[in-house]
Amino acid sequence: MAQTEKKGGLLRKSSASKKPLKEKVVLMYDEIFTTEDPSKCNPRFWEELFLMKVNLEYLESKLEALDGEELMKIKDNINCLFQHCIQALGEDHPIRVVNALQTLCALIRGVHQKNKSTSGFDIINMLVGFDKAELCMKNLMESLDSLLCAEGSESLKSLCLKLLLCLVTVTDNISQNTILEYVMINSIFEAILQILSSPLSRREHGYDAVVLLALLVNYRKYESVNPYIVKLSIVDDEATLNGMGLVIAQALSEYNRQYKDKEEEHQSGFFSALTNMVGSMFIADADEKISVQTNEAILLALYEAVHLNRNFITVLAQSHPEMGLMTTPTSPIPTTPVTPLGTTPPSSDVISSAELPLDADVQTSNLLITFLKYSSIVMQDTKDEHRLHSGKLCLIILTCIAEDQYANAFLHDDNMNFRVNLHRMPMRHRKKAADKNLPCRPLVCAVLDLMVEFIVTHMMKEFPMDLYVRCIQIVHKLLCYQKKCRVRLHYTWRELWSALINLLKFLMSNETVLLAKHNIFTLALMVVNLFNMFITYGDTFLPTPSSYDELYYEIIRMHQNFDNLYSMVLRLSTNAGQWKEPASKVTHALVNIRAIINHFNPKIESYAAVNHISQLSEDQVLEVVRSNYDTLTLKLQDGLDQYERYSEQHKEAAFFKELVRSISINVRKNLAFNTLSQELLLKEFSTIS
């Protein structure tokens, strides 16, 4: 018996047949694409259309095949189709609602393709007509809001969110998407919150809801009052905020898990065997191959929550007991192809499980720990543009956290100790740390570890100056809090001091190359002032008096680097070149460090001569330091514990505009594949007559 094949809306027998047969819905689409009103000959045309299974591919390709002029000729029929879709959304018959939602998606995407051409007609006019736009869009948004808030089908809610994402990302630059004016006027903010506050809805739709909210918040955020920004900033419902945090934590956990899986696979594979044979000379190259696509969309959502809503800060430190109580949804969820920037939602098994057991600290994990682990992965390799953007956004989020009084309170809380296993870049001169030996410490220690790790591992030819500046600023803000609140943190401060001195050494060694691209004196000044902060106020926040002694020991031990830095900035500050002013600022900032070196070095040499010792031990040097503090004179430097607060609009607007653009493009690409498949939806309603 001949097999029947279906392709592009055509039904044909595999045996030779005279003409392929078109399925009924395709014939009805063809009627819409004429200049005649299709309901003239068939009054039940629109009623019948929404009982037919949508052929997305055919409808979109038909729209894309027309040029602007041809499309304008059938504008009335397109408007009519759009309006009947909106009417169908209010019907009780779920099949009609499903088909109407699908048709709207195809219409919006198809018309968008035409809008990119030279004809330049307006999307709103083409879809609904200017005269009816306000009422139609109001009805559409109200219908979507009702469907999202109703107790009904989860599949319908999913399709509503897909349609909204389709609507929002119809242009690359969402601020140029005039359709969004109607989404601003007819807010669906409360519907999104309802999804996030309900465990069942959140499990099914949380990811799409969070990404949708992050995009809506970025619509013309600098030009006008965006109601989604205003509303997000005042949300104080605990269940909603925790729900949002849970969705973000699970998406970041999925990334961390994928990376860990690839890392283990990589280590046990062929390349691992090869590196064991020839030594560790290839280790850096080998690990560059471990690559998991970053997730800027979910990171943007985390940023907006942290930046806009002070109440969300509490969510960062809360563990989520419900993570372990979730069960896998009974209905399968269609898988989506992974796109660049990782805008694909986590798979259903991830969303329904506890935070994946990445290490021994899983029982006490929280959103901040998950985020720090994520940051430690994406900040390893900043050569790739997406990872560079991800790394920058991670540092911006940490900047907001480091400025927040409440966040600092729990970061430094001695009663909230965690074992945080950060990913460390493999380097030839250091061994990999044993995960199981990690101590339990306040969370701020993990933040400082992350900053030290970045400082140590990114001294390279393509120097990420902007990220280094942000990194040093975060450390400075944490120190300001410690000084202000007299928090004596038990941390291995020597690692930080050593990293900072090595950074100065790198800047000096590569002066010519770096100065061609960057003002390295800004960074050098920040590093020197961190040391000044320790020198001036260290006795108020370093854990013990011996820690303060060790600071002096490190400065004296590494004095050659500070001497060289002084020589370099003195040379440039006495010349009339472009670097005169920034270099002279570093010269002035070095006054106390030079005073320490010039005061203690003669004393150490004298001690060695008197005691006939060629090389002093650390304890002997510390003994000299302790016995000669009294005669040391230091200058009081103003403003060391002051900093400029983070401001998005004035300094980061261009970065966020480009970031949101790339997220919008990739969300749209993601929707263009199988996420709108009808099979599951129709199966769900197959029992309905």
TrEMBL record:
Cite the SUPFAM superfamilies for this sequence.
ARM repeat (SSF48371)
Q: At the top level of its lineage, which domain of life is listed?
A: Eukaryota
The UniProt entry's coiled-coil ranges are none
Which Pfam families does the annotation name?
ARMH3_C
Q: Where in the cell is it found?
A: Membrane
Q: What is its main location?
A: membrane
Gene Ontology CC entries for this record: cytosol; membrane
Output the InterPro entries linked to this UniProt entry.
ARM-type_fold, ARMD3-like, ARMH3_C
- Give the Armadillo-like helical domain ranges: 435-671
| Keywords per UniProt | Membrane, Transmembrane, Transmembrane helix
Q: Which PANTHER family match?
A: ARMADILLO-LIKE HELICAL DOMAIN-CONTAINING PROTEIN 3 (PTHR13608)
Name of this protein: ARMD3 protein
Q: Which organism is it from?
A: Aegotheles bennettii
Q: Per UniProt, what is the name of the gene that codes for the protein in this document?
A: Armh3
